[in-house]
Amino acid sequence: MHGTDARLVLGLHRSRHQRNILTAALDLGVTALDTAAPYLGFRSHSVLAESAADLLTKFDVSTKVGFFQGAQGSEHSLDPARLRLAVEKANRELGVEPDTVLLHNPERSLVGLSPAEGHDLLGAACATLNGMAQEGRCRAWGMSSWDPRPLAALRLNGFPSPDVLMVRAGFLVGIDILDAADHLRTNWRATETWGMSPFGGGGEQVWEGFDPRPFLRPPHVGLSRVQAAFRAAFHLPETAAVAVGTDDPGHLAQLVQALGAEIDASAVSQYLDVLRDRRQD
User: Which of 2, 41, 72, 131 is the most exposed place for a label (fewest CB within 10 A)?
Assistant: First the structure.
């Protein structure tokens, strides 16, 4: 068994939730697991408890709340009462208290609201999760945002600082979103930033026309383009951990191997400068 490495988080979005990928993760030293209430057709929590209850206590488990089953399908809400019930439901379904609970894509509920309305709605939601963490319903709380730009546009004064800010990471993320994530991280004083979706949901063919390996410091002999893209995602934006989904233990092992590579920070900085220059043109 490998030593533990908290920088890689096994994400369960699009996962089949099979037990073998969880045991493989533990064998590789991956002890962080990320899911959400709506994953697997709103069955993620219960399926994990049914198939891997004995494994869950070996992971730092993060989950997300904000999407709910409605009459017309999935719906989003930041209503404090619904969020509280969702956290309580997650505890019951998982059979363990999640280590971290994140607001799931809160920007979805800000559409059409004025800045003042958005500020009040998001502030109440953050206060709810912060309060539940203080009550011991979870160890930490935070926010997972697919598009942080609407959040970065709000005044964050008076909001409790989150333990975790989770945002998209990697070469497939646009500069506007990367800059918005940096703005949130700096101004909201998040304790940690996590990345997600470093491959944008695509396969290896995404990297056929772009080789990320020059962003690594030598030696990086034998590392693939996918491995290099994953390692660079930790700096696009700067993150403490990156969540990635896979049902293939071999792929997960390759990503663990990539953690040993070093990034050329100057190359990443030059890349970001080029993106910002192109935005201005």
Answer: 72
